[in-house]
Each structure stands twice: as C-alpha cells, then as structure tokens.
Amino acid sequence: MSQTEPIRFGILGCADIARKLSRAILLSSTATISAVGSRTLSKATTFAKLNNFPPTAKIYGSYEEVLDDPNVDAVYVPLPTTLHVKWAVAAAKKGKHVLLEKPVAVSVKEFDEIVKVCEECGVQFMDGTMWMHHPRTEVMKGFLEDGEKFGKVKSIHTCFTFGADPDFLENDIRVKPDLDALGSLGDEGWYCVRAILWAYNYELPKTVLATREPVLNKAGVLLSCGASLYWQDGRVATFYCSFLSNLTMDITAVGTKGTLHVHDFIIPYEEKKASFYAASESSFDDLVTKWGSQPSKHVIENDLPQEALMVTEFSRLVAEIKSKNAKPEKKWPTISRKTQLILDAVKASIDKGFEPVQIQE
C-alpha cells in the first residue's frame, strides 16, 4: 500500500460521538469510511445514510463483521467504557488499528490488557482526545516552555463542566454504573487530567487527593468531583468536573514569569479559529488601581477541525506501519495510561474516605 491511499476505517457502534468522527474521517484526505457495524442492521443503515457515508461503505448488523472485513484497516470504537477491553482487544487480534474513545477503560488494569494485545499484534493505539491535535495546543505549549516569558510552571488549574438535562441525568450511558462507571470523572475529568499532564510534560504527580463531598447519583456514579495533585518539587494542580454546572472548559497555568489562560480548550468556541491569553511579568500600575499590562490574546486559525486533524495524524501513523513496516508510536498509549492512572487514584481517594493516594506507575 502506498502512503497516498486513504486508511479505511470501520466504526463500531452508532453513538452520538460517532457522528462527529464520521464527519472527521470524511473531512480528512488521508482516511475514508469503509464499514460501520451496529447491534442491528437497521440502525447501522440509518446511521450511514444520515451521516453521508460513501456508497462503497459496508453496513453490518454486528461489530464482529466489521472486524472480519479485510477492507478495514482501523476501527474507531465509541462504545461504552465497560465494553472497551472486549472490542479493542478483539480489533487488535484481527490486526485492526484502534482509535478508542475516552476514557480508555474503567481502570488502568483493564487498559493494560488493551495495550498488551495492541503491542503483541503490532497495531497503533490512540485515544480520542481531540484537543491534543489542534494547532493551538502546540502554540500554547511553546509559550509554557518559554523560559523568558513563562518561566517554570508552578500550578495548573483545570475545569470541565456542563449542565446536563434531566433526561441525561436519568438515562445517559455516562450515569450508568454498568456502562460508564466513572461518570463525570471519566467523561470530563479525563480532559482536565490530560491538560494537567500535558502542561507538566507528562510527569506524574506523587500524590492525589480527591476533593470532599463529590456528588453521586442513586446508583453511585459520580456526577461532580474534583481533586488536588502534588509533585515532589512543590508543583501543584487542581481540577473540577461536573454534570451539574454551566458549560466551562478552562485551563489556567501559572509560571514563575507568566500565566496562560484558555477558556475553550476541549472544544473551541469556533471550529476554524481558536485563541488563548498569555501574560508575562504582570504587575499593577503605580497606584494599584489597574494592571500595568493586560494579557495578550493569541489567535490560531486552522483549515480542518481538531477531530479531523486527529484522524489525519492517526492515519499517518497507520500508513507508516502498513507501507514502511514501522513500529507503532508508543507516545499515545503511554499518555493514555498516565491519564488513566490519575483517574484511578482520584477514584481510590474517594473510596478511601478522601485519603491521599500515592501514584505508582
């Protein structure tokens, strides 16, 4: 296969998020949709029609048929978290590369099962954290690593909340213990934790301490929670996630010389343009009635939405493996595992009565 040939995706399931990824695959010049499978043929047929699948795409009434299709190179798996191990492992064993929705698993033990099989079968793994692939993310990282303008990072504060409606809080898979047992911690906290790790160059904290009084539903699933993270050298981080508050997705990174603010880090306000604010050597005026200088706004434009850029990068890695016999990129499963480790520690701290939990790789 030449690298110019598009990577052929199969989609396992017709979840809402799969609509967005289907569009992203079609927007990417390096990928195409080859198949979709659902538990019923009628649902898969309707999904393909509503999402403008190419006429060549195969429609299947089971996930197994997608994995058995020789014209599928990779699969996108948007299934509930409790099904990730089963279907990601099954896909890898069939030689399919795996783009897996977050959170990647219910626990790091389950995730390790997935990665082990992916490595044994030589397939690429990547999770579906889209904002990591936005060009703004690289520009912001450049500011964080600028010793003159930002200095050394000392603290990170992240937040992802949205106000879920009564139907969501009663019926969505993210509030069901048998489907997505981590609730808001897995759905929203994943992004917050990833942003913290990203800002700290993926160096794990020493200790995690969950915030007291999280909100749980009657089934025991987290609807709202938070935590503090501590590093040995005195660096700190906090995050808060909730299904019960207004839509907010912030990062505040504070350095010895500068500060970074971003208010839409997970999904930008606009699809083709994103911004952040950077401040350096901030101070007040002489009378302390106002700031001497205000943070500067930086705008980054992009031709493709971040989810299409994610598909493009994943497809590039798959093409390298297929056409050049390259080894799968280990960066992505490593980052996923560290994110999952911290989620596990937050959950453990809650379960232990808000005791500090030591992170062990």
UniProtKB/TrEMBL annotation:
<keyword id="KW-0560">Oxidoreductase</keyword>
<dbReference type="Pfam" id="PF22725">
    <property type="entry name" value="GFO_IDH_MocA_C3"/>
</dbReference>
<dbReference type="InterPro" id="IPR055170">
    <property type="entry name" value="GFO_IDH_MocA-like_dom"/>
</dbReference>
<feature type="domain" description="Gfo/Idh/MocA-like oxidoreductase N-terminal">
    <location>
        <begin position="7"/>
        <end position="126"/>
    </location>
</feature>
<dbReference type="InterPro" id="IPR036291">
    <property type="entry name" value="NAD(P)-bd_dom_sf"/>
</dbReference>
<protein>
    <submittedName>
        <fullName>Oxidoreductase family, NAD-binding rossmann fold protein</fullName>
        <ecNumber>1.1.1.179</ecNumber>
    </submittedName>
</protein>
<comment type="similarity">
    <text>Belongs to the Gfo/Idh/MocA family.</text>
</comment>
<feature type="domain" description="GFO/IDH/MocA-like oxidoreductase">
    <location>
        <begin position="148"/>
        <end position="260"/>
    </location>
</feature>
<dbReference type="InterPro" id="IPR000683">
    <property type="entry name" value="Gfo/Idh/MocA-like_OxRdtase_N"/>
</dbReference>
<dbReference type="GO" id="GO:0000166">
    <property type="term" value="F:nucleotide binding"/>
</dbReference>
<dbReference type="Pfam" id="PF01408">
    <property type="entry name" value="GFO_IDH_MocA"/>
</dbReference>
<dbReference type="GO" id="GO:0047837">
    <property type="term" value="F:D-xylose 1-dehydrogenase (NADP+) activity"/>
</dbReference>
